């Protein structure tokens, strides 16, 4: 199948579609069979080749089906299992995490050890584990990282937490374990001989360990879509192989045959030493195939090598198909190979480098956007410059620095000086651009239709570039821009609105998206405390609020309504003001600003509007009505700004943390008040939601924002019984996750849904 290796890739992908029963999978498989038949009739494929491709499709349609082994009866109970360590994913002073393959079920289980082990853990070790079996945490909000799905994509459905050293006994290792031990020794040696900065860069770019690299640097690289330069990939492998090739041929005077043998051996070992990422194995396997082809004096087309590497890696590690690193690596590699003719038409190295950078960026945009929900267009220029800097100077310097640490210790001081000074200059320049030129486009999650149209249009554009049909190139480029613009304007065309009560744990936040995106309004933007119940954290904002807004394509907040000053209702506001444009903050007349938030007010960065009881205000032509505080209750909870509003002719009452006597005042002052949906006050505390209040307002639904297993034992059984006796439909964030109400601007009523089934 010379030059037809891509057929192997297509066969595998069709098998994957069949295994996962994705949309139109059967139709895609039928089309694939018809295509094979057409190619056979036209004598572009032999009968044996068609049979191999069909068998490959059938094989992978079963190979990608995960093994089902139900351990639900063992959940939250102590179990005893034995097995072999397949990978160690995290090692620190506080925690060690490794993957164990159960000898009985052959199932992968994640083990989290929170105590020090008397014996160092090695890959390949046989272990006996005794501990509590549980499920990994899952996402309870839209846009939130789903750790349970992340592990499931790797074939891991369960985990065991160990808190005592006697819960784990391990013995032995294997070749991979010994190589990992050698890797650990080399990294420890770097820590002893070099400065922290130099050692962290060498460990990142040669050994694939970013744990010691400064968090701010990693965040900076992520913001500018440069993370691929920190992860060892084909670029790093090709540079290292080129340096070793030069050393063997020109310095050591070895023959080409001996050099290739040494490099093949090195490439079989190096991916393990470098952390075993898919991109490293891909680059190593393709390079090995090229060297083996030289031995056979056989010119095999590069795309065949790449296709074989793709199939082989997924045969050995089927779960890699879900990894972003694997997807990025092969998508970029295939696109570059298929664009070989275009590259040949470019006359200068600079033009080729610009084209490669641009092609790599546009090929991964949909995958990148669906992972992070934003895109920074200026990152193209930064990527071009930084990639050139890393490939031509910094990575060779790092590799040379590692060789010096092995062979010429006296030169370490000079190498460290070069690494540190170049690193400081580079990071300073990147921080300058980050400060003045960071203007990301928040795209939200792309629909499958948009992704499909994007790639079809991009493929057509590249074909026209190859044919040098520049009029069609321009038209296809305009079409590509229109597809991107369509995604951005879709929310402004939609007649549907959405109200989302986020699951923040023991904190509150309700986000309103009006039809046609006329306005985005947030009622409370709370935060949780650390485990000591006193230290504020940005965890709720970074893990829940910000991802939710990004996945919805929101980058501007028209108004933030704060019920009162407690941390669980406004603790995330400082972080929100840093990342989003907030036009107005609305509070009650008795709201007192915390010291932390006074600066944005003084500098005029935000507009502050105070409302009194009985006043109404409008945001995006949508009306809100204030029902409390009618006076200063001398209590932050009772001074909560209570809001009544309507969505699709359904009335909602947002209550903050008011208590029963405030509820009594509200119903006395508003005897005609009737509510369809009540957001229950104070997380369902017994101090609120009185029977008199419920009888007066007669709601149909009650939403309780409350944390799981919280310290206060909210919601109160008394309150739950009152709601149940009233015949309400009860939604709880601790049980249902985020709760959403979707409505149409011209229809009465709407639909409630929960993020957890």
TrEMBL record:
Keywords: Cell membrane, Membrane, Transmembrane, Transmembrane helix. The keyword Membrane applies. It is a multi-pass membrane protein. PANTHER family: DNA INTERNALIZATION/COMPETENCE PROTEIN COMEC/REC2, RECOMBINATION PROTEIN 2. Residues 506-708 form the Metallo-beta-lactamase domain. The keyword Ubl conjugation does not apply. This is DNA internalization-related competence protein ComEC/Rec2. Its main location: membrane.
